[in-house]
């Protein structure tokens, strides 16, 4: 008797055969995204999750799922780490910061905000190019929806 389920991604009804609960179409798309991430990491082994997500327009959750599923590996034998604490660069398995930085960031939030403001006023031109690139990426995402 066939195991009929709803696809977790698009909601379509399909004949479940095991593994992730995606219909064949979403499974193909997922496989395609996975290959793109893998190729990207091959060229940019030090890329962070957020960088990959932004450049390939694949959600951070999806990339982390590949990590959790063990399809992507955190390579650390030659110093290339996939997930890094955004504050100190220490290897982490999930999230944006290591537990230590998470704690001190919460505490020093006001100080950090002051430092950022100071830096922005100094390197305003360099920062502006970064903003434009970031904004246009965001705009692209909006258009896609
Ligand atoms: Zn689907
Ligand atoms: Zn840290």
Description:
Helices cover 56% and strands 4% of the residues. It has 145 residues and is mainly α. It folds into two domains: 4-98, no CATH class; 108-145. A two-stranded antiparallel ribbon has the order 1-2. Strand 1 and strand 2 (13-15) form a beta hairpin. The two termini are 38 Å apart. One zinc ion (ZN) binds next to helix 4.
What is this structure, in a nutshell?
This protein is mainly alpha-helical and 145 residues long. It is built from six helices and two strands; from the N terminus they run ββαααααα.
Keywords:
6 helices; 145 residues; two-stranded antiparallel sheet; 4% strand; 2 domains; single chain; binds zinc ion
Count of the separate structural domains: 2
Distance between the termini: 38 Å
Mean pLDDT across every amino acid position: 75
As a percent range, the share of helical residues equals: 55-70%
Largest sheet: 2 strands, antiparallel
Order of SSEs = EEHHHHHH
Q: Report the β-strand fraction as a percent range.
A: under 5%
How does the helix and strand content classify structurally? mainly alpha
Task: Give a topology summary.
Elements lengths: L3 E3 L6 E3 L8 H20 L5 H8 L3 H9 L30 H9 L1 H14 L1 H21 L1
Antiparallel strand pairs: 1-2
Bound molecules: zinc ion (2 copies).
One zinc ion (ZN) binds next to helix 4.
């Amino acid at each position: 008797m066939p195991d009929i389920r709803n696809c977790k991604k698009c909601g379509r009804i399909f004949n479940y055969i095991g593994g992730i609960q995606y219909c064949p179409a979403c499974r193909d798309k997922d496989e395609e995204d996975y290959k793109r991430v893998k190729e990207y990491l091959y060229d940019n082994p030090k890329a962070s999750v957020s960088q990959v997500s932004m450049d390939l327009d694949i959600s951070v959750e999806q990339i982390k799922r590949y990590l959790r599923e063990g399809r992507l590996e955190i390579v650390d034998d030659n110093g290339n780490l996939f997930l890094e604490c955004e504050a100190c660069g220490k290897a982490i398995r999930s999230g944006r910061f290591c537990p230590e930085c998470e704690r001190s960031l919460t505490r020093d939030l006001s100080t950090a905000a002051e430092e950022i403001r100071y830096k922005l006023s100094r390197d305003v031109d360099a920062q502006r190019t970064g903003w434009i690139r970031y904004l246009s990426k965001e705009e692209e995402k909006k258009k896609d929806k």
